[in-house]
Amino acid sequence: MEKDMADIHLTDLVSVEFLQNFQDAFADALGMAALTTDKNGEPVTEGSNFTRFCMNLTRGCEEGLRRCKESDAYGGNESAQTGQPAVYYCQSGLMDFAAPIIVNGQQMGSIIGGQILPEPPDKEKFAKIANELNIDEEKFLSALDEVEIVPEKQVRAAAQLLFIVASEISRMGYQRYMLMQMTTRLHDNVMHMMATIEELNASSTSVTENQTSLDEEVKRITGVAQSINELTKSISVISDQTKMLGLNASIEAARAGEYGLGFGVVAKEIEKLSSESKRTVNEINTFTAQINDYIDKTSQVSESTVSITQEQEEATKSILEYIEDIASMTDHLKKLSSHS
């Protein structure tokens, strides 16, 4: 699931290493201090080119640190409200700037810095600040002499350039981030598709195997039905012979007169048995004919099913090959987006 902009952090879009290198190069080129913070004002890089005046003296005392934090907060709020770089004086008298990093209308962080003077300092003014902060005046003014003097116009131009470049880099990072999110989702979906196709393919193979087993059973049943037919033919022949035997016995019983009465009863039973056997054989023939008819229909359906499942199996194999190619491409695209 894609993240909401509120859940995306600056370091999701641009690596800390890149931000640090970019910030260091900017600070060294223009002789200004710089620090990158996230949208909550928390530093994400180490400070670049920070002055001894600020780090060792002003921020080294409790009141000076409080004033510096108030100044940083002012610059961040000002740039956040306007969506543009803010150039201002800190409470210790140096010129600072805050350049917001904006992506899709949302502020992702800021690059704050400066710690310069636009013109030679008023030493009396800074001596007063040193006394307010209870800092040794001589050390304070000595550190002040180390502060770079950069025209305000140049500071504003540098802040504007930093704003444009940083926001553009972050926008590109956001596009790369979204591309990675989408390719990850695409890759995951393709993996699910592959799993589904493999299951379908396995199912098709199982159907084919089961159908082959069914064909073997049908063949066995066909053999049994044929054996029954052969047996009924034999029974039919025996029945006919029995009938003839019974008929002959009746004739002989009639010739023997009263001496053949008992033999005549036996002859009638033989004829009766022959008739019942013949009727049973006819019924068996009817059933076996129906069985053979059902077997033929089952074989036809079975052959059709095997053909269809084989075609389905081949089709799913082809689809699986295509999806594997897509998966390979999405995996490559995912790697490219994570390193671009």
TrEMBL record:
PROSITE patterns in the record, alphabetically? CHEMOTAXIS_TRANSDUC_2
* Residue ranges occupied by any Methyl-accepting transducer domain in the UniProt entry: 196-340
- Reply yes or no: does the keyword Transmembrane helix apply: no
Top-rank taxon of the source lineage equals: Bacteria
Keyword GTP-binding, does the record have it? Answer: no
Q: Which UniProt keywords apply?
A: Transducer
Report the GO terms under cellular component. Answer: membrane
Query: Gene3D superfamilies, from UniProt?
Result: Methyl-accepting chemotaxis protein
Matching entries from SUPFAM superfamilies are given as: Methyl-accepting chemotaxis protein (MCP) signaling domain
Q: Which GO terms describe its biological process?
A: signal transduction
Q: Which InterPro entries does the entry mention? A: MCPsignal_dom, PocR_dom
Q: State what protein this is by name.
A: Ligand-binding sensor protein
